[in-house]
Amino acid sequence: MSIISDDNDFKSAVREKKNPVIKPEAIEPDKNFENCIRPKTFDNYIGQSALKDTIKITIEAAKKREQPLDHLLFYGPPGLGKTTLAGVIAQEMGVDIKITSAPALERPRDIIGILMSLQGGEILFIDEIHRLNKVAEEILYPAMEDFYLDMTTGKSQTVKTLRVPLPKFTLIGATTKAGELSGPLRDRFGIIHRLEFYTESELSQVIRRTAGILNIEIDEKGARAIARRSRGTPRIANRLVKRVSDFAIVKYNGKINEDIANESLDILKIDEYGLDRTDRSLLKLIIEKYDGGPVGIETIAAAIGEDVRTIEDVCEPFLLQAGLLQRTPRGRKVSPETYRHLGYKFAPVGAQQTSLFDK
Ligand code: ADE
Predict the structure, then answer these.
(1) Which of 7, 110, 127, 279 is catalytic?
(2) Number of domains in the chain
(3) Ligand 1 center from residue 288 Cα (angstroms)
(4) Does the active-site annotation cover 176?
(5) Whether pLDDT at 261 is above 60
(6) 221 and 187, same structural domain?
(7) 13 pLDDT band (50/70/90 cuts)?
(8) Which long-range contacts (CB under 8 A, 24 or more apart) does 260-264 make?
(9) What pTM value is reported for the model?
(10) What is the CATH number of the domain that holds 284?
(11) Which of 84, 94, 178, 184 has a Cα at 20 to 30 A from 128?
(12) Residue 235 known to be catalytic
């Protein structure tokens, strides 16, 4: 079994191996950074407090009824902990979890195979569930609703429909694009939750927790400095703490403080908003070539050499939330704050939007 080092590696490993399921216990825990810092219980899971409170009640009620949990859908930008939360729920329910991703469920037999392998009460986690194909979706409907599979045998006139019962299970779906989920699929989830970006203080706690697990020395101001540039996203915060730690070990005594954090993040070209080169080139393109916009996403993608999906799923959610980018029917626009932040003097009159950071 290969060692999978983070969620994206994990997703591509699932895709490439054409093996739709990787059991979390099969991943060597102490060799895997993401896996060993992933919180396993609600007590260790920082942030998303309103969501945690609701889920705790749902879990308690399901346990009292001695029933599996209702199917859950989590949506929100990548890196906010949807997979982690599904793992925490499994742990708190005391059940196993099978993790897969919609692009790995290409053929009907992929989804049928997983459904038939489930044990009673188990959790099936499907990441990127908006990318599920129509056939897989239709197989899922009766499985989610009444816990059976509709199978057909024979050909044309001799075709027979077989109802195969399934054990009661819980489906947890995760998506960065709730709007792309079909209505019938969305309606079959009893509980739908949005994950929010983390505050600076929550990220600073995530960073200190991770540093503790990895034996990295960091003070409060050092953690805050990294948190500030982590785009509200724990996955980014955890990556940055490792990068800054490398820098602190090589250049200093290994201990991270505010100055060391800022110096190394400057070297990594992560600015005070947490923007990286791709974000900046996207925003600069809109300012320099399109007078602040609006400009179509395809034009932006072609000009900066990124694909549309990466821009939409990875770059944009934070830029929109931070008020640095706006989506309009005619394309993407920047705000006066974007001009200020990137050091441009002129901002066109139409570019008006308050920034998250003004508040
Ligand atoms: N690592 C990633 N997400 C986390 C979270 N929500 N709490 C603690 N550590 C994390």
Answers:
(1) 127
(2) 3
(3) 38
(4) yes
(5) yes
(6) no
(7) very low
(8) 260/222, 261/222, 261/225, 261/226, 262/225
(9) 0.85
(10) 1.10.10.10
(11) 94
(12) yes
Q: Are residues 155 and 244 in the same domain?
A: no
Q: Does the pLDDT at position 193 exceed 50?
A: yes
CA distances from 133 to 136, 137, 138, 197 (A): 5, 6, 9, 29
Across 12-30, average pLDDT:
48
Sorted by sequence, the CB contacts under 8 Å of residue 139 that are 6+ apart come out as: 108, 111, 112, 115, 149, 150
Residue 197 has pLDDT above 70, yes or no: yes
Q: Are residues 86 and 112 in the same domain?
A: yes
- Say how many Å lie between the CA of residue 321 and the centre of ligand 1: 20
> Residue 242's domain spans which residues?
200-267
The pLDDT value given to residue 296: 97
User: In terms of domains, do 24 and 91 share one?
Assistant: yes
Please say if 160 is a catalytic residue.
no
Looking at the domain assignment, is residue 272 inside a domain? no
pLDDT at residue 20 in the model:
63
- To the query of whether residue 299 is one of the catalytic residues in this protein, the response is no
DSSP code per residue over 328-344: ETTEEEE-HHHHHHTT-
pLDDT at 355 over 80: no
Looking from the CA of residue 80, the nearest atom of ligand 1 is 3
- Residues lining ligand 1, CB < 6 A? 37, 39, 44-47, 81, 84, 206, 209, 234, 238
Atom of ligand 1 nearest to the CA of 38: 1
Is pLDDT above 50 for 163? yes
